[in-house]
Amino acid sequence: MSTETTAQKSVQETVQEKYGAAARQVSQTSSSACCNPAFTCCDPITGNLYNETEKGALPAKAVQASLGCGNPTALIELKPGETVLDLGSGGGIDVLLSAKRVGPSGKAYGLDMTDDMLALARENQRQAGVENVEFLKGEIENIPLPEASVDVVISNCVINLSADKDRVLREAFRVLKPGGRFAVSDVVARGEVPDAVRQSMMLWVGCIAGALEENEYTAKLAKAGFTAISVEPTRIYSIEDARRFLEDAGVDVDAIAPQAEGKLMSAFIRATKPARSCCGPACCSN
Questions:
Q1: Is the terminal CB of the chain with fewer CB neighbours within 10 Å at N or C?
Q2: What average pLDDT values come out for the chain (286 residues) when binned by 10 residues?
């Protein structure tokens, strides 16, 4: 096994362990997953992302298990009858919200690799009484859906956790229909972040190192075939946001502040899979 493959497997196992622990805690208690000592990347990143109307329409444990950095369903127009895929769906909050927006004639898929999260999501679906939802087990690097099968791909602070982001983006492009939309919330770096600072900040933001630099993210999307790419900051993290988490980890916060301030953010990333060109009643074959 190559060094790169070993590293990717290590990242995947770390993510599974952490998110599985969060799912088990939410399932077994009435407290928030952010009480889990395995997580140091909760509030304020994961707080105040959903309004009271959205939260009130969902099972409490779907809200408690939300460990994202944004609310992708609020920032993308979903139309009745569309098919939506959520990469790394966790407890299912974004899948359930999407299912309500696309209506009975549409469908929302949730993809997750963690058995505990899938069990929690399916129970949340049952409690919510939402039928146009299907939760799939799999990796976001290998989406178990056919080519050109979904209208919209969403994700909430998950792509930054993958060790092979190029493959994730290629897979998202593959499963989108021509003209389909990519609309994800993610953690993004703005400008160069020194490795030591990145590792310290990532104890808080995203739990493990992995956020792409903004221009690198857009370049990877373009390489995958996407067009109309945009990155919209939704929250720029300050050192004061992270101070408690970093100090608990033994990091000298004041020492890294000048190099880290304003360099990491939650962002909404949009892109489009080009529509097939057509030349009359039937599309050209060449």
A1: C
A2: 50 55 53 43 48 52 50 82 95 90 96 90 91 96 98 92 92 98 90 69 54 93 98 84 68 76 85 76 47
Residue 208 inside a domain? The answer is: yes
Q: In the chain, what's the furthest Cα-to-Cα distance? A: 66
Task: Give me the phi and psi of 238, to 5 degrees please.
Answer: -100, 160
Report whether the peptide linkage leading into residue 44 is cis, meaning its omega lies within 30 degrees of zero: yes
Please indicate, yes or no, if residue 105 is contained in any of the structural domains: yes
- Do 89 and 159 meet the contact criterion of CB atoms below 8 Å apart? no
In 3D, which of 48, 56, 66 has the Cα closest to residue 156?
A: 66
What are the pLDDT digits (tens) for 26-76?
555 554 444 444 444 444 444 555 545 554 555 554 445 445 555 677 778
Task: Flag whether 15 is in a domain.
Answer: yes
Cross-strand pairs, 183: 154, 270
Residue 280 within any structural domain of the chain: no
Total domains present in the chain = 1
- CA nearest neighbour of 204 among 40, 8, 13: 40
pLDDT digits (tens, 9 = 90+) for 165-175: 999 999 999 99
Domain interval for residue 237: 3-272
CA dihedral 120, 75, 231, 263 (to 10 degrees): -60
SS3 state of residue 178: strand
d(C-alpha 75, C-alpha 54), whole Å: 14
Q: What is 119-153 written as a DSSP string?
A: HHHHHHHHHHT--SEEEEE-BTTB-SS-TT-EEEE
Residue 72: which of 103, 45, 93, 100 has the closest Cα? 93
